[in-house]
């Protein structure tokens, strides 16, 4: 990759639980713009889900806000992403590539039975305990739950 110029723009995107945040920065690290878009969850007892289609709409909105007024900068160089840990989207996709199910959030505890089974002695491939002693909503348990409930 060639050297960064002042006209270059990188975008950092943080897909969080309550919002998406985007930050546009120059090749020298100057903040050029920032954007945010709210996200909404559905909670009901142990259930905590989000609509993954909402993620993409919020990413588009936050990025558009962060890049507003930067049309003269021609060097869109790349992006960096991070997201809420432990959130699982495990589903087949529709023909258009969209997920068919909701995302299970990091603190959705409906997978507790699978975490408990892992604690009772199931082993991983290297002879280590299959699941760590975390909260019931760990990603491995959520993935197992999603797979068990997805046709």
Task: Write a structural description.
It is a single chain. The protein is an alpha+beta fold. The chain has two domains: 9-83, ATPase, nucleotide binding domain (Nucleotidyltransferase, domain 5, 2-Layer Sandwich), CATH 3.30.420.40; 85-151, no CATH class. Helix content is 23%, strand content 28%. The protein is built from three helices and seven strands; from the N terminus they run βββββαββαα. Strand 4 (42-44) and strand 5 (47-50) form a beta hairpin. Helix 2 packs across helix 3. It is elongated.
Features:
Nucleotidyltransferase, domain 5; 151 residues; single chain; three-stranded antiparallel sheet; 28% strand; alpha+beta; 3 helices; four-stranded mixed sheet
What class, by secondary structure content? alpha+beta
CATH superfamily of the largest domain: ATPase, nucleotide binding domain
Described by strand count, sense and barrel closure, the largest sheet is: 4 strands, mixed
Could you tell me the CATH topology label of the largest domain.
Nucleotidyltransferase, domain 5
Helix percent reads: 10-25%
Strand tally = 7
Number of helices: 3
Beta-strand residue percentage = 25-35%
What is the molecular shape? elongated
Strand order of the largest sheet: 3-2-1-6
Provide the gyration radius in Å.
19 Å
- Can you give the mean pLDDT? 76
The rounded distance between the terminal residues' Cα atoms is 44 Å
Instruction: Report the uncertain regions.
Output: 122-136
Q: Could you say how many structural domains there are in total?
A: 2
CATH architecture of the largest domain: 2-Layer Sandwich
What is the CATH C-level name of the largest domain? Alpha Beta
């Amino acid at each position: 990759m060639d050297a960064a110029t002042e006209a270059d723009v990188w975008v950092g995107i943080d897909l969080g639980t309550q919002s998406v945040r985007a930050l546009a920065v120059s090749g020298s690290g100057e903040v050029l713009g920032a954007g945010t878009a709210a996200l909404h969850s559905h909670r009901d007892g142990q259930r905590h889900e989000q609509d993954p289609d909402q993620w993409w709409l919020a990413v588009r909105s936050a990025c558009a806000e962060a890049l507003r007024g930067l049309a003269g900068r021609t060097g869109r160089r790349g992006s960096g992403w991070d997201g809420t840990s432990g959130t699982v989207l495990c589903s087949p996709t529709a023909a258009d590539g969209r997920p068919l199910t909701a995302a299970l959030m990091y603190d959705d505890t409906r997978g507790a039975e699978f975490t408990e089974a892992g604690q009772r002695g199931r082993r991983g491939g290297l002879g280590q305990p299959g699941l760590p002693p975390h909260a019931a909503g760990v990603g491995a348990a959520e993935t197992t739950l999603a797979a068990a409930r997805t046709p």
